[in-house]
């Protein structure tokens, strides 16, 4: 009987520990519709560059299921983010297709993408990634960098 009491006590303690396990981070400051008040995305391919103004572009952040947050900029740019400290950080390797003036659609592989808000009303973002474009029958790898400030709508 004494052994049974230890087993029951152990199972009860295990259940309590499981229920007190890691909690999901608070995503409420990030969730909602945001609009860029300033910002650019620039592609650098050797000596060639193209820049796209982000001002006026909208994005939505929602609570995720396989990540803390899901950013939707367009149907071809949906990126998962996890909260790490004071930032939301995208896992590298995700793909975001963006439109760049005079170039067209670019499939950008994310190297890093961070979002940060302290007040839930203003957010800054920084993106670094790579894309490839055809030039003279060859595929050239280009660096893509972007920064911007967004306001919650």
Task: Give me some keywords for this one.
153 residues, eight-stranded antiparallel β-barrel, disordered N terminus
Quick structural gist:
With 153 residues, the protein is mainly beta. The chain is 12% helix and 60% strand.
Description:
The chain has 153 residues and is mainly beta. The protein is 12% helix and 60% strand. It has one helix at 2-19, and strands spanning 32-45, 48-53, 58-63, 69-74, 77-84, 87-90, 95-100, 104-116, 122-135, 138-152. An 8-stranded antiparallel beta barrel has the order 1-3-4-5-6-8-9-10. A hairpin with a 2-residue loop joins strand 4 (69-74) and strand 5. The longest helix is centred in the N-terminal third of the chain and has 18 residues, at 2-19. The chain starts with a helix and ends with a strand.
Summarize the helices and strands and which ones pair or pack:
Elements: H1 2-19, E1 32-45, E2 48-53, E3 58-63, E4 69-74, E5 77-84, E6 87-90, E7 95-100, E8 104-116, E9 122-135, E10 138-152
Antiparallel strand pairs: 1-2, 1-3, 1-10, 3-4, 4-5, 5-6, 6-8, 7-8, 8-9, 9-10
| Integer-rounded radius of gyration | 21 Å
Q: Please give the order of strands in the largest beta sheet.
A: 1-3-4-5-6-8-9-10
Note the gap between the termini: 63 Å
Structural class: mainly beta
Share in β-strands = over 45%
Task: Determine the number of helices (DSSP H or I, runs of at least 4 residues).
Answer: 1
Fraction of residues in H or I helices: 10-25%
**Overall morphology:** globular
H-E order: HEEEEEEEEEE
- Given as residue ranges, the uncertain stretches (5+ residues, pLDDT < 50) are 2-19
What is the average per-residue confidence, as pLDDT, rounded to a whole number?
86
- Largest sheet descriptor: 8 strands, antiparallel, barrel
Count of individual beta strands: 10
